[in-house]
Specification:
Strand content: 15-25%
Order of helices and strands: HEHHHEHEHEHEHEHEEHHHEEHEEEH
Largest sheet: 7 strands, mixed
Bound molecules: pyridoxal-5'-phosphate
Radius of gyration: 21 Å
Shape: globular
Number of helices: 14
Length: 361
């Protein structure tokens, strides 16, 4: 092959060092690594989705405005559909926010550790990232957020609550304090809203700089359909719409999300089970010698082990259980792992195997 074009040399300078997002191609394991809903997707909801499929669903482009889904979401959240934008997962909305309000010469400020996509998409969009380490127990120091954002003249502040991977929340009064005292766009990611039901959506009228992110990937069990949404005031939505790909959410996914919303009582029952199981997993972890679990308001538990987290991760994987190793580097997360709350029997197996591994087995 000709040497005239070397892709690795021609790539944009500022993304040369990026590594592709790490997926976990383990076909036969119990997956407790991605905070998905562990239950089989309800058959009655599938049936309803299939009934709505028509020839048009396949041959015609999807509704670019996702009108019916936005109406259903408006009803779910008690707001006007005009304040909602639907995306191909909330990942797409994160990227769109950076492309629209970030970009070269702009800065995003965020407390860490948090969801890695906020850093990755910032880099892709050429947006500078300024991080503030959380305090012990993963508390977010609000005064320092405001000061830090001002010092770096942040264009965007990102706050995730409940936070991934820690499960901790930022109190509402702290969120409002940030909104009151900054000119930056404040993005509040509520991906785990259905597990704690605390939201700043009711404050939308008051703050023109507020953006809330939600997803169907967690409580609603639709990670495979890629549906997320963003809530903001109309002028923000107007700017985002200029950059949004017109057919970003496919027709089947729009139908699926509407069906899930109509049947939300089914998911409510699953959520209650997950919350009960989370408490059980937390208490069991607390009872293991040297293990420190962190209280969580989401569908996962972060915990620190007395041995190398990577060793625990690998031994669990040998036993057919996949969780998330976050503890490779020194810092607040050193020797921490995150386990997604699964079905009862999955949690039992996880706890049993972890117990054996920590006992030196
Ligand atoms: C899982 C998760 C999302 C969801 O992303 P999707 O693209 O909608 O699947 C968003 N934010 C956080 C903090 C998450 O943990």
């Amino acid at each position: 092959m000709s040497e005239r074009f070397v892709a690795a040399e021609r790539v944009r300078e500022d993304i040369k060092g990026l590594v592709p997002y790490d997926t976990h191609p383990f076909p036969k394991v119990i997956r407790m690594d991605a905070n998905e809903n562990p239950y089989t997707f309800p058959e009655e909801v599938v049936g309803e989705m299939l009934k709505e499929l028509k020839g048009d669903t396949f041959t015609r482009y999807p509704d670019p405005g996702a009108v019916r889904l936005r109406e259903a979401l408006g009803e779910y959240n008690g707001i006007s559909p005009g304040k909602i934008m639907v995306g191909n997962g909330s990942d797409e909305m994160i990227q769109l926010l950076y492309l629209t309000f970030g970009g070269r010469g702009r800065t995003v400020f965020l407390p860490v550790p948090t969801f890695s996509m906020f850093r990755i998409h910032a880099r892709i969009a050429g947006t500078k990232v300024e991080k503030l380490p959380m305090e012990e127990g993963f508390r977010v120091p609000i005064e320092e957020i405001l000061k830090g954002a001002e010092d770096c003249q942040a264009d965007i502040i990102v706050l995730v609550t409940p936070n991934n991977p820690t499960g901790t929340v930022i109190p509402e009064k702290d969120l409002l304090q940030v909104l009151e005292n900054t000119q930056a766009l404040v993005v509040i990611d509520e991906a785990y809203y259905e597990f704690n039901r605390q939201s700043v959506v009711p404050y939308l009228e008051k703050y023109p700089n507020l953006v809330v992110l939600r997803t169907f990937s967690k409580a609603f069990g639709l990670a495979g359909m890629r549906v997320g949404y963003l809530v903001a005031n109309e002028p923000v939505i107007f700017e985002l719409n200029k950059l949004k790909q017109p057919f970003n959410v496919n027709s089947f996914s729009q139908i699926a999300a509407q069906a899930a919303l109509r049947h939300r009582e089914v998911f409510e029952e699953q959520i209650q089970n997950i919350l009960r199981e989370r408490e059980r997993v937390f208490i069991a972890l607390e009872g293991m010698s040297g293990v420190r679990p962190y209280p969580s308001q989401a569908n996962f538990v972060l915990f620190k082990t007395p041995v190398k987290s990577t060793e625990v991760y690998e031994k669990l994987l040998e036993q057919g259980i996949l969780i998330r190793d976050l503890g490779k580097e020194p810092g607040l997360l050193q020797d921490c792992l995150r386990v997604t709350v699964g079905k009862k029997e999955e949690n039992d197996l996880f706890l049993e195997k972890l117990g054996v591994i920590l006992a030196g087995g």
